[in-house]
Amino acid sequence: MTLNRIAEFVVGLIFGIGLILAGMTDPGKVIGFLDLSGSWDPSLALVMGGAICVGFFAFAVARTRTTAFLGGAMHLPKPGQVDRKLVAGSLMFGVGWALAGFCPGPALVSLGAGHWQAAVFVLAMVVGMLALDWLSKGLPQLRTEGAR
Prior knowledge:
Blueprint: H1 3-22, H2 27-34, H3 43-62, H4 84-100, H5 104-112, H6 116-138
Helix pairs in contact: 2-4, 5-6
């Protein structure tokens, strides 16, 4: 196993533990955050705010570097990369998140904990990703930079 894979595993493990400690693997937290007319739960906003702060400083450091800490190439988004496909995908992600109460990270953590609802979500997510991959091969306007 390479050092990169070990680092990826450790970072993912820390992320998963953070999600569990913050209660973000509970779909009720997400739904409570989105329930503006009922008993609104602001805890997700606090977690997002913390993530934005960490990301802000991490990207500031990353912009000054030409290689990653473990020697790999830096792949940062370029200005102007926001297009219709990104906005449409983001909207679909948000609607799915609101309906299910999961986003991919917490869903994988919940799946690992044996929650059947997470299994349904992850299965639907994988089917959606495979469908996009299949559709993008036939429709040039759906092709992305990383598509085969």
